[in-house]
Amino acid sequence: MTWQNYQLDNTILKADEALTLWQIEKGIIEISKNTLAIPIKLDKQRKGYVFHGHSKLVLDTIVETQEGAIGKPVEKEINEPFLMIGDTEEIQQHLTIASKEDLTSMGYENEKGFITKAEDLRRKFLGKRRMHAHQCRDENNGFIFAFPNETGKLDMLIAKGSKLVYKAIDRVFVSTKNKVVLKTPKEVILSSDQRSFVIKKES
Fold first, then answer.
1. d(Cα 115, Cα 122) in Å, to the nearest integer?
2. What is the pLDDT of residue 134?
3. Measured distance CA(52)–CA(37) in Å, rounded
4. How far apart, in whole angstroms, are the C-alpha atoms of residue 94 and residue 31?
5. In a 10 Å sphere around its CB, with 0-12 CB exposed, 13-18 middle and 19+ buried, how is residue 90 labelled?
6. In whole angstroms, what is the distance from residue 110 CA to residue 41 CA?
7. SS3 at position 133
8. Residue 114 to residue 51: CA distance in whole angstroms
9. For 168, which DSSP code?
10. DSSP alpha helices (H): ranges in 59-176?
11. Which of 26, 48, 59, 110 could be bridged to 85 by S-S, CB 3.0 to 4.6 A?
12. What are the residues whose beta carbons fall under 8 Å from the beta carbon of 127, sequence distance 6 or more?
């Protein structure tokens, strides 16, 4: 699998209703009705999308320790284009061709505007591929999301079953069935099998 082979389609679609892209006990990503979407293809098969609409990310990144709960949840309104790689079968059934009015409502004069933004995001995501190569090998069985942040870089969420990796400006959160790790600018918290450790960072 070569990431450079992932290319954008030239068809702009929209969601015909509000959709849940991904959901587990610890989190959910939703898009609103009329969210724009450009398919990402590999060997003529849809492998994901670049979306732009009024979307939401909610993620429980709180760690339970003997000292109590540490951390805070992620609750973000996503109003910029973001990328998803993963199972598209269910999503495809709820996408229709977007009109000029749909593009205008999201601030685009024409299709080229959205395609350009989506291509910039795709290229930026390709620059992250080496860092996440080991998590991304099995993308057909999981999901990868990339969200632009205020620094011009990408926040990443990688999920497969009960395994979850979230990397943002202010935290790195890793959760598996039996272990949770939270790294913030001030501390590192590890919780595993009812035991927990908190390591404070020197300021």
1. 10
2. 42
3. 6
4. 12
5. exposed
6. 22
7. helix
8. 10
9. -
10. 89-92, 100-105, 111-126, 133-136
11. 48
12. none
For residues 157 and 72, what is the distance between their CA atoms, to the nearest angstrom? 17
Spatial neighbors of 155 by CB under 8 A, at least 6 apart, are: 146, 147, 148, 149, 166, 167, 168, 169
pLDDT per residue over 52-94, tens digit each?
999 999 999 999 888 788 889 999 999 999 999 999 999 999 9
Q: Tell me the one-letter amino acid at 45.
A: Q
Phi-psi region of 193 (alpha: psi -120 to 50; beta: other; left: phi over 0): left
Q: How confident is the model at residue 123 (pLDDT cuts 50, 70, 90)?
A: very high
Three-class DSSP category at 85: strand
Q: Which two tokens stand for residue 101?
A: 């009015």
Question: Which two tokens mark 122?
Answer: 């795709």
CA separation for the pair 121, 72 (Å, rounded): 28
